[in-house]
From TrEMBL:
NCBIfam families: PRK11650.1. Keywords: ATP-binding, Cell membrane, Membrane, Nucleotide-binding, Translocase, Transport. Gene3D superfamilies: 2.40.50.100, Nucleic acid-binding proteins (2.40.50.140), P-loop containing nucleotide triphosphate hydrolases (3.40.50.300). The keyword Cell membrane applies. This is ABC transporter ATP-binding protein. PANTHER family: MALTODEXTRIN IMPORT ATP-BINDING PROTEIN MSMX, TREHALOSE IMPORT ATP-BINDING PROTEIN SUGC. Residues 4-234 form the ABC transporter domain. GO terms for molecular function: ATP binding.
Amino acid sequence: MGSIRIEGLGRNFGGVTAVDDISMEIRDGDFLVLLGPSGCGKTTLLRMIAGLLEPTGGRIVLDGEDITGTPARKRDVAMVFQNYALYPHLSVARNLGFPLRVRKVAKDEATARVDEVAQQLEIAHLLDRKPKELSGGQRQRVAVGRAIVRNPKAFLMDEPLSNLDAKLRTATRRELTDLHRRLGATFVYVTHDQVEAMTMATRIALLNRGSVEQIGTPEEVYDRPASVFVAGFLGSPAMNLLDATVLSARGAVRAEAPGVRADLWPGTTEDIDVVLGVRPEHLRPGIGTEPVALIATVDSVENLGSEEIAYCTVGDAVVCVRSPRPIAMRAGQSLTLTTDPEHVHLFDRASGRRLEWIDTSQPYDYPVSSARSLTNA
Ligand SMILES: Nc1ncnc2c1ncn2[C@@H]1O[C@H](COP(=O)(O)OP(=O)(O)OP(=O)(O)O)[C@@H](O)[C@H]1O
Ligand SMILES: [Mg+2]
């Protein structure tokens, strides 16, 4: 078992608030990814869970037990560091066995356990080598092996793949998700790489300036971003975001921006300043009579091999369109782009929070056809 409850956790460094009153529930068996830009507080949060850094306020509860004041070595969690932190003068076998020696596990038992873990991670042939005689990928496995050797309740990993080249990183992603499945343990994994987060996480917590912007499954955060920040962080290229106004027009709720008209749903609304978002993969050439129309000029087209990206000007904004190759657009062309109304995201411009279309006459809030008012989600 390894559920971790974080309650109002905070940490200041002098005048800097690195982690600001964070609360979250990490369930047993979760692969929770802490995702966010550099400096948002990911490492600080992870180090507090590990017991390597004291919080300024709040509590950490592991399986119902308050461990806020428990020293790191007495917490039943194991940390894998970005630089692996292997002991250079010890062999792989002794590096793997280190956590067991510290805990005074009997020698035979420790040797058997090291062999077992080495088999599991396919590093049994490396047991007599020193870390400097290993490749980056092999070092990374030894670091993971040292964490799993004593069966902790939770694994804490801080950017463990960032020192690997792109190809090895992709392969290792799959190995880690496999390992997570086999061990059935709780993983808390820090990265600033959205692809790692989307492919490995059971849930993603998106951090911004020491606070949680959104926590949810990869699908939830990608399909229904809770804020402009989340919308702009996930996706490559990121979601197109345009300043727009929501208003009533001819019995429809419409969003308007220079070069953009989006009739979203039947109904009426007060005028609201919004940010309108559409993902590049949801835009396609249209004929102009669709409910959503963007008048665009194509500036350039980029070939990514399997896909192409068209960079367009709409009003005075840049709008990206992504599609399998060949994309039906050429540089210099003027055309109308369209999308389905359900692919239009709206965010309150003042708060940056998602606006959800609530239909008060129906039990479902999405999708809706006869909505009355926009409310803050
Ligand atoms: N020991 C420290 N002393 C002073 N400030 C610190 C210390 N550790 C972290 N900070 C500050 O706290 C904030 C959060 O840092 P943290 O290392 O948690 O970010 P991060 O999300 O892990 O970033 P990265 O992706 O670059 O690793 C930053 O502003 C950082 O400068
Ligand atoms: Mg960090």
